[in-house]
Amino acid sequence: KAGVTQTPRYLIKTRGQQVTLSCSPISGHRSVSWYQQTPGQGLQFLFEYFSETQRNKGNFPGRFSGRQFSNSRSEMNVSTLELGDSALYLCASSLQGDAGTSTDTQYFGPGTRLTVL
Amino acid sequence: AQTVTQSQPEMSVQEAETVTLSCTYDTSESDYYLFWYKQPPSRQMILVIRQEAYKQQNATENRFSVNFQKAAKSFSLKISDSQLGDAAMYFCACINTGGFKTIFGAGTRLFVKA
Asked: Could you tell me whether strands B3-5 and B60-61 are parallel, antiparallel, or unpaired per DSSP bridges?
């Protein structure tokens, strides 16, 4: 089975621009979570989607948004980029059954390295 | 609020020796899961081991085992017979059942000396 894929792998943007990152989960996985990883803040939870519904979100400004499609693929968008948004953005998927109990193991993608100049 | 604390920013171990990475957590929920993830320099995060809070028995995966102390809210990872390939960043994580939000610790960078 193919793993979690994230595109693009690297991205360079300038302040004020917006960016869209994509995540394709493992086939059959219905939950997708997004994390921001920086040297100073570590891994911070952005949001989690299950069956196209956002079930939880972290403490990030409204400039960070996401969505999930019917095939479980997910995108996250960051508008009006700031220098502090430079980070590795990780996506993780998990299987979960109909109960969507959220305790299944998460499988991570390689990440998208975003640099804001 | 849910928190995960890893008090050791860096650890070092000699090849073939044993090392223990510490993790403490805090959650108000009674039903939760704990994980250790490994992130090698290539950056792909992978699961090392998981523990269900309702299980008293400590989880074991080959050379990796945990010491789960529920009352103390402690969840340490023991790596036996350390190998060069174990060198990585290790993250402790906690998720409440039904919370849909995984909280990670700051990580411990493990160095393995040949």
From this structure: unpaired
Confidence class of residue B44 from pLDDT cuts 50, 70 and 90?
Answer: confident
Map tokens 């906690």 to a residue.
B94
**Residue A50 sits at the chain B interface (C-beta within 8 Å):** yes
Bridge-based pairing state of the strands A107-108 and A112-116: unpaired
Nearest CB partner across the interface for B102, out of A45, A101, A107: A45
Give per-residue pLDDT as tens, A83-117.
999 999 999 998 875 554 556 788 999 999 999 99
Contact B102/A33, CB-based, under 8 Å? Answer: yes
The token pair at B37 is 């993830």
**DSSP state string for A41-59:** TEEEEEEEEETTEEEEE-S
Contact (CB, 8 A) for B54 and B66: no
